[in-house]
Amino acid sequence: MKFSRAIDWLNAQVGRFVIWLIFAATAISAINAIVRKVFDTSSNAYLEAQWYLYAWSFLAAAGFTLLHREHVRIDVLNSRLPKRVQVWIDIVGFALFLTPLCLVVLWLSFPVVVQMYETGEMSGNPGGLIRWPVWLALPVGFLLLMLQGWSELIKRIAFLRGEGPDPMGRLTDKSAEAELMEALRRQNEAGDAGAAGAASQR
Predict the structure, then answer these.
(1) Which residue, 68, 102, 124, 134, is the most exposed by fewest CB within 10 angstroms?
(2) Is the dihedral of CA 152, 158, 162, 164 positive or negative?
(3) Is the pLDDT of residue 25 over 50?
(4) Is residue 117 part of a domain?
């Protein structure tokens, strides 16, 4: 469980950092648009930097997304099954599907990253960027995803042995959508309270 908590902490930190990559990609997109409109010039480097950052944010956050159970799941039958059966399905999925998939991607992608680093391969587009930094996101992202899969596997085994909490229970951290809705609700309540106070003073 200590190993599981360490992985959870790692992916939580990565998730908090990844949001800044989205901000950076948005800022570069805005700067590129301004430069193109004002100075009638642009560069493929701006465009490639945007999808480099998007690739990193998408892949690096895969483990964070699994930690918060935000991956798309089609629970037509699974949600109707007993809790222990659901946990066993997750165990089989993490052990026999997720882990081998991640290992295959790591096995195939890491040599490509090393080769690109050694050769200094550049983009084929004029003014493009060097390639290995964006390819590095592939093994890093799948390594974080595999580690989080192991963490979830540990949690489910501990639950079956009666040594851990329900891994399928309600998460303590709210999703971004839930936090946004709660913030809007508080804002509306504050606005209503202010309007009511102003009306009472009249």
Answers:
(1) 124
(2) negative
(3) yes
(4) yes
